[in-house]
Amino acid sequence: MTAQPRVLSGIQPTADSFHIGNVLGALNQWADLQSQADCFYAVVDLHAITVAHDPAVLHQRTLTSYAQLLAVGLDSEKSTIFVQSQVPEHAQLQWVLGCITGMGEASRMTQFKDKSSKEGSGAASVGLFTYPILQAADILLYAADEVPVGEDQRQHLELSRDLAERFNTRFGQTFVVPKTRVIKGAAKILDLQDPTSKMSKSLPAGCVFLLDDPKVIAKKIKTAVTDSDMEIRYDLVNKPGVSNLLTILSAFSDLSVEECERELAGKGYGDLKGRTAEVVLAYAEQYSTRTREFLADRAELERIMLDGATKARAVAAPMLAKVYERLGFVHA
Ligand code: TYM
Prior knowledge:
Helix content is about 55%, strand content about 5%. The protein is mostly helical and about 325 residues long. It has two domains: about 210 residues, HUPs (Rossmann fold, 3-Layer(aba) Sandwich); about 90 residues, Tyrosyl-Transfer RNA Synthetase. Strands 1-2-3 form a three-stranded parallel β-sheet. The protein has a two-stranded parallel ribbon with strand order 4-5. β4, α8 and β5 form a beta-alpha-beta unit. The chain binds ligand 1.
């Protein structure tokens, strides 16, 4: 029997709810992979402090994020689901990887450029700058073969691969060079108000948060920007708004995009939005019920979390020890 591939991915606890881009681009893949891989999934709270934050809000969002991972179908018996700050090896490996990262290559990361320009010039933290190095540490610590993510993470994963190869070349074979795993179709869910940008929690008007009030969810979908044409047809270049709604409808209804087009042939954009709202609301209802159930038993939630951290450390600690040995550090 061949060993199962190792999978790792992470999500930031930086909103009160995950949005449909997170679920369709990443979390659905995470859940599906559980039957074919040895999976490690993290709520990456160390990443969440790279921009200004409120401690009480972060605390609550970390618990809610963890509960949402369970609500989308991650199973703590099958997968290792943990909170990043509870595994100190992440920050330790990040230091090491930071010492083999060039200033030039870190400066080329486009997410840093986008986020730091939003923070205002000079206001961005060093932590925001080194964010992708911490992400590389998350992945390399677990010898992950594959990293399931949305399209926006590709560049960060390239850096992880480069750092793994560089370390291996300089200090001997240590890390697995991870592959990016991007889902077909839903890797980039677009903003409902501006379908030329990806859906993002930083642009809440066009972002559907699954734990929001159903009325808010329905309104956002029904006021989605489409185009002046009348045809319901998938064409990402010329009709990004309509194509995005078809992608969302298809993903939440388990029908292919072609089947959705056929179902709506001859109908108007109001029908497309109505059907999309219907399937998203049905999903959101069970999603929020399950999330609330997991949050209601706080002691049990914290027990599962701690158990996840213990399982994660059992893998992370020996990897860090190997790295330290390769670097020439004297054994403690
Ligand atoms: P984060 O928290 O922004 O997003 C979590 C996951 O959701 C995906 N995603 C999307 N997919 C499709 N369409 C969208 N509009 C959309 N918006 C978000 C993201 O691609 C991601 O997969 N840097 C990471 C967190 C991280 C990580 C890691 C990921 C830290 N360490 C190690 C993988 C491996 C991030 O900010 O994701």
